[in-house]
């Protein structure tokens, strides 16, 4: 497969960046994951708009234009024959040979690093996990305070996933002051009666591109949406729950810690939203 590094397409095994790259030394970088359905990018504009917000928040200069980014995404999808899958994009602040400094280098002397690669994921739309639903555990949210910036600082979410695995579950929801913030790599929702409840965007969560689309589709389908914080206790007493992300679309949650939700099977609201989301994205 072909990857892209700073203007060059090359075999994945030859794709390399410097050991002085601040992405490597300091997690000083941001990323985006865009899904591909039927060979087409899903919500490309939304992902690039968020990328621009992440870069601006960290004072990293976007190395290429949006049109060039679109071109690179399409080129990789074509070269790698991706029908269903993902395009991963990362931009770091770069780094000069021999340097390791907490202060940012002068952007005039140190160009940012841009890398992209693809992952083929057949069954992204037809995901068997959506039939059974996923089980989650709750963990403390001990991340930093700017979770709205999509940085590559993913160690705690990664540990959360491992905690879930060792507990025999699929994923974890993070909880702060009794309220659910989000999943390790997705946004969290509960359903009470006919109402879909999800936390409003703030610096405490990443504002999902899938989230924005799903809430729009829910409103178009006359479903009731409330953007408010909800507690872990409310979640355990909810009729349904689900998560959204570019890698899972809408994924039903059937268990939180040791509590089964509703009938312990994917709920009707989550299933309907998943169907609408995939149809609209195809
Ligand atoms: N993660 N919240 C967190 C913490 C995330 O990492 C993600 C996405 C989301 C959902 O955002 P979106 O709908 O734009 O994918 C919410 C990506 C998929 C990842 O890290 O692989």
From TrEMBL:
<protein>
    <recommendedName>
        <fullName>Probable branched-chain-amino-acid aminotransferase</fullName>
        <ecNumber>2.6.1.42</ecNumber>
    </recommendedName>
</protein>
<comment type="pathway">
    <text>Amino-acid biosynthesis; L-isoleucine biosynthesis; L-isoleucine from 2-oxobutanoate: step 4/4.</text>
</comment>
<dbReference type="InterPro" id="IPR050571">
    <property type="entry name" value="Class-IV_PLP-Dep_Aminotrnsfr"/>
</dbReference>
<comment type="pathway">
    <text>Amino-acid biosynthesis; L-leucine biosynthesis; L-leucine from 3-methyl-2-oxobutanoate: step 4/4.</text>
</comment>
<dbReference type="Pfam" id="PF01063">
    <property type="entry name" value="Aminotran_4"/>
</dbReference>
<dbReference type="InterPro" id="IPR018300">
    <property type="entry name" value="Aminotrans_IV_CS"/>
</dbReference>
<dbReference type="GO" id="GO:0004084">
    <property type="term" value="F:branched-chain-amino-acid transaminase activity"/>
</dbReference>
<dbReference type="InterPro" id="IPR001544">
    <property type="entry name" value="Aminotrans_IV"/>
</dbReference>
<dbReference type="GO" id="GO:0008652">
    <property type="term" value="P:amino acid biosynthetic process"/>
</dbReference>
<keyword id="KW-0032">Aminotransferase</keyword>
<dbReference type="InterPro" id="IPR043131">
    <property type="entry name" value="BCAT-like_N"/>
</dbReference>
<dbReference type="GO" id="GO:0009082">
    <property type="term" value="P:branched-chain amino acid biosynthetic process"/>
</dbReference>
<keyword id="KW-0028">Amino-acid biosynthesis</keyword>
<comment type="similarity">
    <text>Belongs to the class-IV pyridoxal-phosphate-dependent aminotransferase family.</text>
</comment>
<keyword id="KW-0808">Transferase</keyword>
<comment type="function">
    <text>Acts on leucine, isoleucine and valine.</text>
</comment>
<dbReference type="InterPro" id="IPR036038">
    <property type="entry name" value="Aminotransferase-like"/>
</dbReference>
<dbReference type="GO" id="GO:0005829">
    <property type="term" value="C:cytosol"/>
</dbReference>
<dbReference type="InterPro" id="IPR043132">
    <property type="entry name" value="BCAT-like_C"/>
</dbReference>
<keyword id="KW-0663">Pyridoxal phosphate</keyword>
<keyword id="KW-0100">Branched-chain amino acid biosynthesis</keyword>
